[in-house]
Design a protein that fits this description.
Blueprint (H helix, E strand, L loop, with lengths): L1 E5 L17 H12 L7 E6 L2 E6 L1 H10 L3 E10 L1 H9 L11 H13 L8 H8 L3 H19 L12 E3 L5 E3 L48 H18 L8 H18 L2 E3 L16 E3 H14 L2
Helix pairs in contact: 1-2, 4-6, 5-6, 7-8
Length: 307
């Protein structure tokens, strides 16, 4: 559906820009074309909370602003959350527009991994959606996961540094003697071990479970309610942690990991296979059901391929 919007109302969340940056020369070229009344395809927007979010056409929008246009014709490609808009934007620019650089492709993969929707997809689904090779997705995912593990592992200040070298009378370097361990009864006021702090998290046990009618058709997989209950508890814990006194950066790291775990739990809830509708097929390994994250990936792939 084509619709006109004031250009100042177009939201530009950088998570929806799969390219590393815009090319100023291309923006200038497009701006001159707009001033000459040239015809361009409409930019694509995704309606998020009632506002148009740009998902495709960043160079064109920048050129229209530079050309002094006040209204813009847009192709409304969907309505939903910002995560859905990001997922839509990552699938743009595959077969049209300016040729993507290797950095553009790597940025698109990282944005997909940081997205709750993309993080639940397999490497092949991500590669197909973004339009990159399966090997590139595996490589970037390995780097991304290594960075996350490095952020979570904080160095222990009590660990000794590398052995100090000392020079003997003969001029040779030797390792300094290891320091003796303190006696157990000696209490040091500057101990590196922090005192344990008891935090009472207001997490309720009676988390209401949503009604999932498909459970009746899946008697061999009874773990759906438990997964949703665990996800609900983690969601409450994330909210509770926001009031806890934690060191700088620790709260964001813990909350990010809890959110990722919550999405994985919800993605593991069983659902009738959308390909065979429970009749069993190779895609669902002849079970008639699959995990919700896998089912969502099937539906998105079918939508992209027009099945």
């Amino acid at each position: 559906m084509t619709q006109k919007f004031p250009i100042r109302e177009i939201a530009t969340d950088r998570r929806c820009q799969a390219r590393k940056e815009e090319d100023p020369a291309i923006v200038d070229e497009y701006a001159d074309a707009y001033r000459a009344k040239a015809k361009f395809p409409p930019i694509e927007v995704f309606i998020v909370d009632g506002a148009p979010q740009l998902v495709d056409g960043w160079h064109r929008l920048a050129a229209m602003v530079k050309a002094g246009l006040t209204w813009v014709t847009c192709e409304v490609v969907g309505t939903g959350t910002i995560d859905e808009a990001v997922w839509r934007a990552l699938g743009a620019n595959q077969g049209h527009g300016i040729r993507r650089t290797n950095e553009d492709k790597r940025r698109a993969v990282r944005l997909a991994l940081e997205s709750p929707i993309g993080n639940e997809q397999s490497a092949r689904v991500l590669a197909e959606h973004i339009g990159v090779s399966h090997e590139l997705v595996l490589k970037v995912r390995g780097e991304w996961e290594a960075e996350r593990r490095a952020q979570l592992s904080t160095p222990d200040s009590c660990e000794p540094a590398e052995p100090v070298k000392r020079i003997g009378k003969d001029g040779r370097a030797r390792s300094a003697p290891k320091p003796r361990a303190p006696k157990a009864e000696v209490q040091t006021p500057d101990s590196c071990e922090p005192e344990p702090v008891a935090v009472d998290y207001p997490v309720e046990d009676d988390v209401p479970l949503p009604h999932e009618p498909e459970y009746d058709a899946l008697p061999n997989y009874p773990h759906g309610p438990e997964l949703l209950r665990c996800a609900g508890l983690i969601a409450k814990l994330r909210v509770s942690l926001r009031t806890a006194a934690l060191p700088n950066g620790t709260l964001q790291t813990i909350e990010s990991e809890l959110k990722l775990t919550e999405h994985r739990l919800r993605g593991g809830v069983p659902e009738v296979c959308p390909r065979c509708n429970g009749a069993k097929c190779n895609r669902c390994q002849n079970r008639g059901w699959c995990e919700r994250g896998q089912a969502d990936g099937m539906r998105r792939t079918d939508k992209v391929l027009g099945r």
